[in-house]
Amino acid sequence: MNDEPWRVWLRRARSNLARAELGKQAEDILYEDLCFDAQQAVEKALKGLMVFLNIEIPKTHSVGYLLGQIEESGKAQVPESLRDAALLTDYAVTARHPGDWDAVGEAEYEHAVNLAREVYRWVASITARSEA
Description:
By secondary structure, the chain is mainly α. The protein has one domain (5-131): Nucleotidyltransferases  domain 2 (Four Helix Bundle (Hemerythrin (Met), subunit A)). It is 59% helix and 0% strand. The protein is built from five helices and no strands.
């Protein structure tokens, strides 16, 4: 196993994505928690990409900010289709704790997981170039 730091980030991102993709396997599992895993997958994938591209990683859970930093670096162009992933930040900040927010439904959960898959695939496609 190669322990390059960016690979460790992507391994952790893949773990969060796999948990999110497992879905509501029991009645006690909340969509909010699955969406938190989707957000974590994206955050970790983007931070892994930042390590790969030699961009300093900020201490933030903001997916939008991370995407902006990657784009501002000029080292990768963020596809327009991935900009909606910024919406996932709420699952790291608001929805992961009990509070004053609406419960997450199945359609919202599926959207979150699809966004996470897209971001992960995009990051993987960039890092795979190093193996070519």
